[in-house]
Amino acid sequence: MNIAIVLSGGVGSRMGLSIPKQFIEVSGVPVIEYCLKSLIHHPKIDAVIIGVADEWLSFVKECVKRVGTKKPVYYSKPGEIRQGSIINALKEANKQGAKQTDIVLIHDAARPLLSEKLITDCLKACEEADAVLPVIPVKDTTYLSRDGKHIDSLLERKTLWNGQAPEAFKFGSYYEANMKLSEEELNRITGSTEVSYRVGLKCVLIPGDTNNFKITTPEDLSNFESIIKNEGI
After folding, report:
1. Distance, CA of 203 to CA of 108 (rounded, Å)
2. What pLDDT, on the 0 to 100 scale, is given for residue 229?
3. Cα→Cα distances 191→19, 81, 219, Å
4. Residue closest to 206 by CA, chosen among 138, 132, 116
5. In angstroms, how far is CA 213 from the centroid of its own chain?
6. Are 204 and 123 in contact (CB under 8 A)?
7. Could you report the per-residue pLDDT of 187-201, keeping only the tens digit for each?
């Protein structure tokens, strides 16, 4: 079974708006609804878990209703940090009977332009690995500076990659690795695949999608609005 986890508990503070970015309407459709449609309608996704705060639960349920599905959809509480939200969703998957060999696909609701191909690629790659991370190459020359004022070292650009979501994991090994995290370790996690890497699981990279950007700033939102308008999505 393949289970999609959608994280929608963020507050979007960098947007400077009173509403979380994933719930902003673009062309009359909430941002979260775009990726929900891609995941729910994908033929290889069997169930969906949405991490959402209580005050937005009814809103998200209406989004799911509009998308339409006969697949099971469950809900989990958001955590104080992203990885905490993932752990809560993993616990819900475990509660619903997820098996060791099932695949969980973890996506951010603020990445609305999720393609069917990227979902398929993640799931396929995870058949032979414990963790799968889509990446895109770093385009700009990158420097290491510990104080933000002086260059400490030059980094080889061709070895650097930007991680994206969705990230795919074998449920059993990923659930176990997360359950063993101390609070201190949890607070140091900056990316979902980092958990798998730290415990020595097999992690692989696959090509990401430049359109699959995360809406973080007003400029990102404007870019998304332009894409929706020009491509008629």
Report:
1. 20
2. 87
3. 24, 11, 23
4. 132
5. 11
6. no
7. 889 899 999 999 999
Spatial contact of 28 and 54, defined as CB atoms under 8 Å apart:
no
User: Span 194-219, mean pLDDT?
Assistant: 95
Res 18: pLDDT: 74
211 class by beta-carbon count within 10 Å (0-12 exposed, 13-18 middle, 19+ buried) = middle
Beta strands 143-144 and 167-170, pairing class:
unpaired
- Contact assessment for residue 36 and residue 64, using Cβ atoms and an 8 Å cutoff: yes
Please check whether residue 136 is in contact with residue 208, taking contact to mean a CB–CB distance below 8 angstroms: yes
Q: 3-class secondary structure for the chain?
A: CEEEEEECCCCCHHHCCCCCHHHCEECCEEHHHHHHHHHHCCCCCCEEEEECCHHHHHHHHHHHHHHCCCCCEEEECCCCCHHHHHHHHHHHHHHCCCCCCCEEEEEECCCCCCCHHHHHHHHHHHCCCCEEEEEEECCCCCEECCCCCCCCEECCHHHCEEECCCEEEEHHHHHHHHHCCCHHHHHHCCCHHHHHHHCCCCEEEEECCCCCCCCCCHHHHHHHHHHHHHHCC
**What pTM does this model have?**
0.92
Distance of alpha carbon 119 from alpha carbon 105, whole angstroms: 8
Length of the chain: 233
Specify which residues 29 forms β-bridges with: 26
